[in-house]
Specification:
This protein has six helices and eleven strands. With about 250 residues, it is an alpha/beta fold. The chain folds into two domains: about 70 residues, no CATH class; about 150 residues, Zincin-like. The relative contact order is 0.10.
Length: about 250
């Protein structure tokens, strides 16, 4: 594709706007070996190697537009809805409990005994979009802390149980992707795994552990997944697809 790509317009602050996908936030990395794209409900996040030009990046967006459109649609439909007093968020390690109080001027959080107590100023509309954004950012803080506490030891347990070896594990805040495994055996896990049930969380981690032996999704990979999930790989995969990977 030559010339200016369809829909996209570059702005000086390193944010492009796309009429279909929303903002495209761009950052450059000397460590990145290839273009990386994260698809969220209302924006795209691009990480570019230093030698990749703007036109090449925009061309990539247009060439993969159909796939991005499909993924963004799934992200939007799978996002967690409003979190309030009547609709608490249940995670693997805590449940939210929200109350309105005149004693608070800002949203206050306290995690104790498997409950994330959230106090919201009485004059704030909890269901308002801007309040929900602030509320979910606060909840994500505790999700990240709990994920770092719970997921690495569980991954180690599963690896020992099934005879896998991996080099390192990191907890990330990636949306739309539960995990990944590099060719060097480094595993990344999304903190949003805590939104799954225990068996589905294990299935995600087993999926990445299987990639330490089979990097693709070929027949040998799925045979390995069938073994470690006791013949339930397809069933568990379908169940995971019903959960949001993000708030």
């Amino acid at each position: 594709m030559n010339g200016t790509p369809k829909y996209c317009a570059y702005t000086a602050d390193e944010t492009w706007h796309d009429d279909e996908f929303g903002d495209i936030q761009v950052s450059y990395s000397n460590r990145a070996k290839r273009l990386k794209l994260r698809i969220e409900a209302d924006k795209l996040i691009l990480v570019l190697p230093a030698d990749v030009g703007k036109m090449s990046a925009l061309r990539f967006i247009n060439q993969t537009r159909e796939r991005i459109r499909a993924v963004q649609k799934r992200v939007k439909t799978r996002a967690v809805g409003v979190i309030d007093q009547e609709h608490p968020l249940q995670t693997l390690s805590f449940t939210t409990s929200i109350s309105a109080t005149t004693e608070r001027k800002v949203i206050h959080y306290r995690l104790a005994e498997k409950t994330l107590h959230i106090e919201v100023p009485a004059d704030i509309d909890i269901t308002a979009p801007d309040t929900q954004v602030r509320l979910k950012k606060g909840i994500e803080h505790f999700l990240r802390l709990e994920a770092k506490r719970l997921l690495p030891p569980r991954l180690e347990f599963l690896a020992n149980k099934w005879g896998f070896e991996y080099k390192d594990v990191k907890i990330q805040s990636s949306h739309g992707r539960w995990g990944s495994c590099s060719s060097k055996g480094n595993i990344n896990l999304s903190m949003f795994i805590l939104l799954l049930t225990p068996e589905l969380a294990d299935s995600v981690m087993l999926h990445e552990l299987c990639h330490t032996k089979e990097m693709n999704h070929g027949p040998r990979f799925w045979a390995l997944m069938e073994k470690v999930t006791e013949g339930r790989a397809k069933e568990l995969r379908l169940k995971i697809n019903k959960y949001p990977c993000g708030l």
